[in-house]
Design a protein that fits this description.
alpha/beta; 4-stranded antiparallel β-sheet; 23% strand; binds adenosine-5'-triphosphate; binds magnesium ion
Length: 265
């Protein structure tokens, strides 16, 4: 676990204040406030439909919030054009990875670097991605659609790195992966954070993996943050242990456990 502590009073890299987003009449997140400090891995835990993906889509500009504000590196990015937000250094790895299936692995990586002019830097970052995920080097000329789910997740994370971002939003990297692959991917995510200093906001249903990999965590139920603390302390809390790590049927605020298998295409 990262023990690096940001000095008190430091401005967070990302700050959400009272953010509310809806799909038509359905309020998906209701007054969410959270902070991500520079250099940390922060996580939002929540079960199916809690609003995790909606938070990330609202940050990256895919959904415009009804209320509230979002600040990144000290500047407002609320409801900005997603492409501009990427240019500012904030990249979103969506749920279900969404690689370009008919492009090669290498061309997928190059697509991630479309905002960059520094060819040498791009070449270096492709090599760096291949160092994190050697299988992608072996498969570099193959169509991305032929990769396994785990390899596509690796590619989606690597493609995000190609923008050389300050902050990566990661939506359920464990989705559909075996425990072994999930562990491998989380280890690399932690390495990316430590070695490149990339700040990460990760949302997960897999509380066990997320709490072990992250520094600070939020618990989301029914579109609201109901608890926040260091992951070290969250791991010790009975509610978290019982509901997210164990067998209890009700969450912190009476949220029922509801496991649903998601599939992609
Ligand atoms: N496109 C949509 N149209 C209408 N309602 C939506 C849409 N997307 C999500 N919702 C609803 O918004 C709420 C939050 O959904 P969201 O996808 O953010 O949850 P989540 O925490 O990411 O869930 P999961 O773990 O299943 O991915 C849910 O009630 C969901 O049904
Ligand atoms: Mg989701």
């Amino acid at each position: 676990m990262n023990t690096a502590v940001t000095p008190a009073g430091d401005k967070p890299m990302l700050q959400l204040l009272n953010v509310e987003s809806a799909y038509g009449p359905i309020k998906a997140i209701r007054g969410v406030s959270l902070k991500v400090r520079q250099g940390e891995i922060a996580t939002v835990l929540g079960s199916n439909g809690a609003g995790k993906t909606t938070i990330l889509k609202t940050i990256s500009g895919i959904i415009d919030p009804r209320k509230g504000s979002i600040e990144f590196k000290g500047e407002a990015i609320t409801a900005q054009d997603p492409a501009l937000i990427v240019r500012r250094g904030l990249v979103h790895v969506p749920e279900g990875r969404e690689v370009f299936p008919l492009l090669s692995v290498r061309d997928n990586l190059l697509m991630g670097a479309y905002t960059r002019q520094d060819r040498d830097g791009v070449a270096r970052d492709i090599e760096a991605a291949y160092t994190y995920f050697p299988i992608l080097k072996e498969r570099s000329a193959q169509d991305a659609g032929l990769l396994s789910g785990g390899q596509q997740q690796m590619l989606a994370i690597s493609r995000a790195l190609m923008a050389n971002p300050d902050l990566i939003l990661l939506d359920e990297p464990s989705l559909g992966l075996s425990p072994k692959l999930t562990k491998e991917i989380f280890e690399i995510v932690v390495r990316i954070n430590r070695e490149r200093g990339t700040t990460i906001l990760l949302v997960e249903q897999n509380a066990n993996m997320a709490l072990n990999a992250s520094d600070y965590g939020y618990v989301l139920e029914n579109g609201r943050i109901v608890m926040e603390d260091t992951c070290e302390r969250l791991r010790e809390k009975e509610d978290i242990k019982e509901f997210y790590l164990g067998m209890k049927e009700e969450g912190v605020r009476g949220e029922r456990r509801w496991k649903k298998k998601k599939t992609w295409r």
